[in-house]
Write the structure tokens for this entry.
Amino acid sequence: MDTTRTTRAHRITRTATAVVGALGVLTLSACGAADTGKSQNAGAQGKTVKLTVPSWVGAQANTAVAAHILEKELGYTVKSQQMGEVLAWDALSKGDIDAIMEDWGHPKEEKQYVETKKTVVKGGDLGVTGHIGWYVPKYFADAHPDVTDWKNLNKYAKDFRTAESGDKGELLEGSPDYVTNDDAIIKNLKLDLKTNYAGSEAAQITAIQKYAKEKKPFLTYWWTPQWLNAQVEMVEVKLPEYKEGCDAEPAKVACAYPHTPLQKFLNADFAKNGGEAAEFLKNFRWTTEQQNEVAQMIAGDKMSPEAAAKKWVDANESTWKAWLPK
Amino acid sequence: MTAAVTTPVQKAADAAPVHPERRLLQHRVGRRLLPLAAAAVVLVPLGLLLAGTGGWPAALTVDVSAPLDDANQWVIDNRDTHPLFLYFLLHLSNTATDAVDAVFRLLSGMGWLGVLAAVGVLGSRAAGLGRRGLKIAATALAAFGVCGLLGMWDATLLTLALMIVSVTCAALLGVLIGLAAGLSDRVDRALRPVLDTMQVLPAFAYLLPFVLIFGTGTPAALFCTVIYAAPPMARLTALGLRGADPAVLEASTSLGANAGQRLLTARLPLARKQMLLGLNQTIMMALSMVVIAALVGAGGLGEEVYSALSTVDVGKALAAGIPIVLLAVWLDRTTAAVGDRIGRSATGGGPLHGRVGWAVALGAVGAVVLAGTALGRSWPADWTVDFSTPVNQAQDWVTTHLTSGVPVLGGTDVWSENFTLWILNPLRDGLLWLPWWSLLLVVALLARLVGGWITALTATAAMAAIGVLGVWEKSLDTLSQVIAALVLTLFAGVLAGVLCGRAGRLERLLRPVLDAMQTMPQFVYLIPVVALFGVTRASAIIAAVVYALPAVVRITTQGMREVEPAAMEAARSLGASTRQQILQVQLPLARPALQLAVNQGVVLVLAVVVVGGLVGGGALGYDVVKGLSRGEMGLGMTAGVAIVCLGLVLDRITQPARRKPTP
């Protein structure tokens, strides 16, 4: 018994020495300055392009198609990382990722990284125009055509009522990622509505699907392009027309959302030294319908993004040939 | 309002020391509350006069988000140039990336056959040879085989690599903290709130600063996991060191061992069992961070779960969630097997023991790796099963048939609506209606009833801090949800625990279910919960109950089992019915366990508040998520700290005796 204990003590001492030694080596290595921009995910190397995969399917379609062509036609390895939009901007600035393929407008980040720090450059239009708005299901709009004007919304508030919204109508909201002025719009237009934040796109989509299955009326913050629009038909409610600058002051907004040409952004170093990959990503430009086609394959037919991208690329050679570097 | 106040009061009264005469109890309670009552007589009119009724006065808030956002900005501006980053922090994150990378390369370099051989051999080494070892090895092989079949092989390996590195770091950190806390009472007291905060502060809240400082992907995920997973190791190490048999220590002193030798030769070896339990808990906590790690781009199984959410694909999320559960089961059984062997002195040996055994094991794995390279390194693509389609169909069927139109019961939609209308709304509105100072008073009162003046002071200060942070209303909204979830959890959990405690077969049946409930990432069942209950606070509460229930069931079962057999015997011989046995013998004697169950209920329900924010819980949970996803550190941190404060308040008013260190 005693002997085992002493050997054990020896073993512990030895382990402790080893740990101290390892820590020592680590400290020594810390004497030099560290490489910045090395902190990517495990497994990236060589002729690699790093893309971010946003949480919504439309943008996944862009990334998947771009990745497929980069890998199959140009011989790159594509490493994709999933993260929130603002985090992606930060990573783009540091060079942890090389490009964002679909951006819905982040004025604060654009100012900071593109104008002030100049670590990010614009990559041009994606070709797809995004639009945010308030939507009701088509079956409800068909039965009550005047619901599509905001002036009549108070009349229908009681139809949109839920346990969460009390005696007001519910305006279903999505993920905290999304740009929304809805609380201000409701207040400034004196609408009898109350926002209910789903907190994630998955929860919002599930709720919409649930309502649609039961053919219940609902009012939701929603946008195009979106794959769900192919499954659940929705009609936009007209808000007071958008004019340049009407959404400048968050508390005073009382107008609709603009139509946003979606943008690509590249890391500045990558744009300069990224060679064919950077040129290809700058040239990438397709239409809303083309994006929706791929998005529907991913979300509706539950194909993997890679398989959906391959199917689209195989069928649309003339479109993407034009994006390749000359 | 009434519900909110009466429940804790009853609980507190139940929990006060038992006295045969009620009067004496009342007396004690009265005496304890007298000073507070006197204070109330003075304070209430003063409060009415000065601050009126309603929510927390704006004049008494401090805006901490501006300085936090400034700090945020400073990091962004300086992290490429400041020496602090260049010479220290970046080394940390590069080392972290390299370490995970290296482990991942090693694992994937071994090929799938090699990995299977390694986990199999490791299992039999951990449990010893013989039947036990075979069983553990078979569990390991089956677990990894299913991961491969589900098409998650690479993701599983990446997650495993992240786990190996983060659990190693967390265990080292935990042992260091535990050593300090175990050897010094003062350090122990000072560290306890720190450990509490490490566990209750939602990782979402500090994920953002970590991402800004260490970079997206592996480093931020790794360090967050270490912070969350280290406390159990620290607590149990300290507990083990404290619990060392004094006789052994005396013997070792008398043999002339100095403090250092005593620690190494007596105290640490004696604490091995607790430390191993700590390691086990650390592993479980680390696994529960897998999906959160994916939010900042750490990849692996978490990313699969997370990306399945964007297409609302429950089947795919489940396919990625099951490997996480299997990893947990595998690691749990393996560490448990090692734990069982500790203390049993090394049996005679035989040829396959000790170093020889390890050498043989290594050799065998090496041979399989070499042989396996011929078969290809990654899991064969044809050997996968697509089960997401049937799962999605099943989910569709269930939600269609349960949401409404169920005879007599109504359906989940009806429940959810009634629950929100008749319980949640009154509870929240009541809390909001109460003048802020009266709520402080209620908290002080309850805490004083349960503990000493320090307890009352801590609880009140924590409640006041919430107001000062400027999130009074949101916190009360969250509080109402937490109370509802807690009551449901305790009710269902204690009931199930009592049943399991009396019927061993039921416990065995439930065990895998409880395992899955505890380790399945909540993100996996978000969609079914929303499909059943809608985007409401009720959904958030269901998610919390599912997560917190297993711990309460387990602790209650354990408590019921450990009731002294003599007491049960006596009760039985006196002719007590089953009901009487449970209510009058087992439950009162299991009180310490029940208190622990309440404590864990509080901690776990609070841990899911953030997830609740993702399904319509709103309030603080939503703010924390919003802070992360919009890069607003002030917002996220403030809400996170408010959750910690709520935890403190609830803990203080539900934990009568001096709390035992809990894992």
